[in-house]
């Protein structure tokens, strides 16, 4: 595969000088903001905000809106690309969803999570959430399944019912 390098430079820029992309569709709930703030506080920036320079010379964020917002006036690393607006919108629309398509290797995740320690409540909450999501086996009390048990389910939002 011939990979095009679209990064033209890395700059250190005060985060509050970056412009949010007007089509940024990602919203960052309070729990995510707390976890990200804790991570930045405990570890720091270990990546970079991704941006493009518009015709006015302004750096417009493609990826990293939450990090830039949380950083405030702190200087952050920014990968400046030569993407045009259409390409930037393609990255903006697909970057996170492509990452979300990754599957979990439980044999690696378990030991990784067990090796991490933190005194930060927000990070501990995040790590516990990851642990809860990976519980996929039935508890000991559910060893036997009776297919004849009548079960009915109803969606509280739309009212759809199924058995």
List the helices and strands and how they pair.
Elements: E1 7-14, H1 30-42, E2 49-53, E3 59-63, H2 65-71, E4 75-81, H3 85-100, H4 106-115, H5 121-133, E5 153-154, E6 161-162
Parallel strand pairs: 2-4
Antiparallel strand pairs: 1-4, 2-3, 5-6
Helix pairs in contact: 1-2, 1-5
Structure description:
The protein is α+β, with helices and mostly antiparallel strands. The protein has two domains: 7-100, Conserved hypothetical protein from pyrococcus furiosus pfu- 392566-001, ParB domain, CATH 3.90.1530; 104-134, no CATH class. Helix content is 36%, strand content 18%. The chain contains five helices and six strands, in the order E-H-E-E-H-E-H-H-H-E-E. The strands form two sheets. It has a four-stranded mixed β-sheet, with helices on both faces. It starts with 6 loop residues before the first strand and ends with a strand.
What labels describe this entry?
163 residues, alpha+beta, Conserved hypothetical protein from pyrococcus furiosus pfu- 392566-001, ParB domain, 2 domains, 4-stranded mixed sheet, two-stranded antiparallel sheet, 6 strands, 18% strand
The number of domains is 2
Strand order of the largest sheet: 1-4-2-3
Helix content estimate: 25-40%
Strand content: 15-25%
Spans of 5+ residues with little confidence (pLDDT < 50)? none
Number of helices: 5
Broad structural category = alpha+beta
Secondary structure tally: strands: 6
